[in-house]
Amino acid sequence: MQHLFDSSGDWLGFRIGKNVYNSDGDWVAWLPWEDDDVVTTDGDYLGTITNGNRLYHFSDKPRRGYPGYPGYPGYPGYPSYPGYEGYASLPLGARDVTMPRPK
């Protein structure tokens, strides 16, 4: 399990394999390619995992096309709160991600 944080050090959610969950344990995104780009379950770019555990949205990312739908991975269980990670400056062209909630 990889916990994900914003630039303020606030916990956004977590990643298990290619699947990304919000802090409530809801599956909201995934990593369809062999890199750190994250897309929502609808196929929209959400952000990129950088510095090991930060999830940022980069406005200059080119559209890569619809990655398909991977199928629902199931409920991973509720993870324990990992605590505060500490501040990290935003990279150039990046903003913090707001994690989606299920529809």
From TrEMBL:
Domain 4-fold beta flower positions: 3-53
InterPro entries the UniProt entry points to: Bflower
Top-rank taxon, per record: Bacteria
Species this protein is from: Vibrio astriarenae
Protein's name in the database: 4-fold beta flower domain-containing protein
